[in-house]
Write a structure and sequence with these properties.
This protein is of the alpha/beta class. Helix content is 37%, strand content 22%. It folds into 2 domains: 2-100, Rossmann fold (3-Layer(aba) Sandwich); 103-236, Rossmann fold (3-Layer(aba) Sandwich), CATH 3.40.50. The protein has helices spanning 16-27, 43-52, 65-71, 77-82, 102-112, 129-132, 135-140, 153-162, 221-226, 237-252, 259-269, and strands at residues 2-7, 31-36, 55-60, 74-75, 87-90, 96-99, 121-125, 145-149, 169-172, 181-186, 204-212, 232-234. Bound molecules: 2'-monophosphoadenosine-5'-diphosphate (ATR). Pathway: Metabolic intermediate biosynthesis; chorismate biosynthesis; chorismate from D-erythrose 4-phosphate and phosphoenolpyruvate: step 4/7.
Length: 270
């Protein structure tokens, strides 16, 4: 039995053990996947101890994604760009390889729901670590333009600059918003506090989608706001399942079917 785990703090509510148990059952892989809660600042020691006990790979979640980035011997291109790692892989040589699957997870979830990105105008709200992590895969889908807006305008402007070589992207404050968008993605943590970013009422183009990277039993405040303004709605549950599927693929070289896991996870929220 190969061992895997999710490292987070707190980690008690993580859905990853359930998701990976489903993937393993589905693909007939003999793996054990647990949840581990290292003290803040002690991810590297916890990962080393885990490897010494037969650990082969891990997911890393809040607040350890930057620590995971630091501890890796080798990084994928997209992890380097993201400045964060959510997937650790122990190589045969004892070296640790780091990747990030969050952005691919988002793009796959959008594809699953047949949300087109190519040629579309995309707005991203927020400019923190979560948003930095999705920009490379998103720009790879060749939207006509990506606009990033953030409460702290400078952070959005910086992201626009950092990713300008990958496509048409610009960043600024909420006051710089103009025109309508085909896809609007909320990547802020504002919904955690029940806050709504200050967005104009006429934001959505015909047939537009509103996507919140967060999810919960109840729709987030952002989705609750977007529905009556004409957008079709998606929350981040599918992204969670798809990023897990990509991690599973990196470890086991098998692609699980995400559909039954989506359904089971949605049910388990209630
Ligand atoms: P994460 O890893 O979730 O991205 P983060 O790096 O702390 O966490 O980023 C949080 C994001 O949510 C930021 O874009 C933040 O805006 P600021 O950069 O201005 O802080 C945004 N955010 C958090 N609470 C918010 C609120 N109440 N209203 C608007 N934006 C908020």
């Amino acid at each position: 039995t190969d061992r895997y785990a999710v490292f987070g703090n707190p980690v008690g509510h993580s859905k990853s053990p359930m998701i990976h148990a489903d993937f393993a059952g589905q693909t007939g892989q003999d793996i054990d996947y647990t949840a581990i809660e290292p003290p803040i600042g002690e991810l590297a020691a916890a990962w080393q101890a885990f490897c010494a006990e037969g650990g082969r790979g891990a997911n890393v979640t809040v607040p350890f994604k930057a620590d995971a980035f630091e501890l890796c011997d080798t990084l994928s291109h997209r992890a380097r760009r993201a400045g964060a790692v959510n997937t650790l892989i122990l190589g045969g040589n004892g070296r640790t390889y780091g990747d990030t699957t969050d952005g691919v997870g988002l793009v796959r979830d959008l594809a699953y729901h047949r949300v087109a990105l190519a040629g579309k105008r995309v707005l991203i709200v927020g400019a923190g670590g979560a948003v930095r992590g999705i920009l490379e895969p998103l720009l790879g889908e060749q939207p006509s333009e990506v606009v990033v807006v953030n409460r702290t305008a400078e952070k959005a402007r910086q992201l626009g600059e950092d990713f300008a070589d990958l496509g048409t992207i610009k960043g600024g404050g909420f006051d710089s918003l103009d025109g309508k968008f085909d896809v609007v993605i909320n990547g802020t943590s504002a919904s955690l506090s029940g806050d709504l970013p200050p967005l104009p009422d006429d934001l959505f183009a015909n047939g537009a989608w509103a996507y919140d990277m967060m999810y919960g039993v109840e729709p987030t405040v952002f989705l609750t706001w977007a529905g009556p303004r004409g957008a079709k709605l998606l929350d981040g549950l599918g992204m969670l399942v798809e990023q897990a599927a990509e991690s599973f693929y990196l470890w086991r070289n098998q692609r699980p079917d995400t559909a039954p896991v989506r359904a089971r996870l949605r049910q388990s929220l209630n």
